[in-house]
Design goal:
The protein is built from 8 helices and 2 strands, in the order ααααααββαα. With 282 residues, it is mainly alpha-helical.
Length: 282
């Protein structure tokens, strides 16, 4: 990890909205400039380049993929949605913090269920965090490439030249606060794809019953329970649609790209999945 000492984290990267229809623009209510674009220039830990795992371009604005995603987020992601269930509302709130901490808690709880020793736990958590770290840098890189428009912009203002038939709603407000950066690919979804894939590869299984205690939000149960690692990850990804800040096609690309990053990182850190051979029994 010595090469990460100079990781470019403190480097400021300015970004000005292009004003081009269909591209990112500051979102309500604060209309903040794009933040944390410097993350795209951080030093990777294992991945050779931030674009090593390819993220395809988002669908065209008249495609069924975009329109279907638009309609889904417009309906379930609005602040006063009548179709979002109580559990989906709770999950969207519970996951709104940085996902990496929740995945670390999940991994730690599964390790306890296995009565894993200190060394195995440290090795697994280090591999998980490395996969998530490189997935985050990859995500910010692809966000900077595509500068995708957020639901809070396109649902309210529409695309008068690119798809004038979209059923816009000038009064629409997302359930969650929209982060001040590009929509595509979904960051939580890329983290979720990376974390779930890394954990399945490291543990060697998917099905397992466990619970995770999150942060305290008023009226939201702090403890959530799962029966699989994939279930945990997919809830984390879907929470961004339930919160009204991402689209379904962005979830899919984010998840797949994150999974690809994790497969590469774990393959390097644990050749032939031999992370835990010859470890001391404590």
């Amino acid at each position: 990890m010595r090469h990460l000492i100079d990781d470019n984290l403190g480097e400021f990267v300015d970004f000005t909205a292009s004003g081009v229809e269909g591209k990112w623009e500051p979102t309500p209510p604060d209309f903040l400039p794009w933040e944390m674009l410097n993350y795209a220039n951080e030093t990777l830990s294992v991945l050779p380049r931030p674009d090593y795992i390819f993220a395809p371009a988002p669908p065209g604005f008249t495609s069924s993929s975009f329109v279907d995603s638009f309609l889904e987020t417009k309906e379930i992601g609005r602040v006063d949605s009548s179709t979002r269930t109580t559990d989906q509302t709770n999950a969207a709130t519970w996951w709104q913090t940085r996902a990496a901490g929740l995945y670390a808690r999940a991994a730690s709880n599964i390790l306890r269920l296995q009565n894993a020793g200190l060394v195995k736990s440290a090795v697994l958590l280090r591999a998980l965090s490395t996969a998530e770290y490189d997935a985050s840098i990859s995500n910010y890189y692809w966000k900077s490439v595509y500068t995708g428009i957020r639901p809070a912009s396109v649902i309210v203002d529409g695309l008068p030249h690119l798809n004038p038939s979209l059923p816009i709603d000038p009064s629409w407000t997302s359930f969650l606060y929209t982060p001040p950066d590009g929509e595509y690919p979904c960051g939580h979804c890329q983290q979720s794809g990376a974390a779930a894939t890394a954990l399945k590869l490291l543990f060697g299984f998917d099905s397992v019953s466990f619970s995770v205690e999150g942060y305290n939000y008023p009226g939201v149960p702090a403890l959530r329970s799962y029966t699989s690692i994939t279930g945990l990850g997919m809830e984390g990804a879907n929470s961004r649609i339930w919160g009204g800040v991402h689209f379904r096609y962005s979830l899919t690309t984010g998840w797949n790209t994150g999974a690809g990053v994790a497969e590469y990182v774990i393959g390097v850190l644990c050749p032939q999945r031999r992370c835990f051979q010859n470890l001391p029994a404590f």
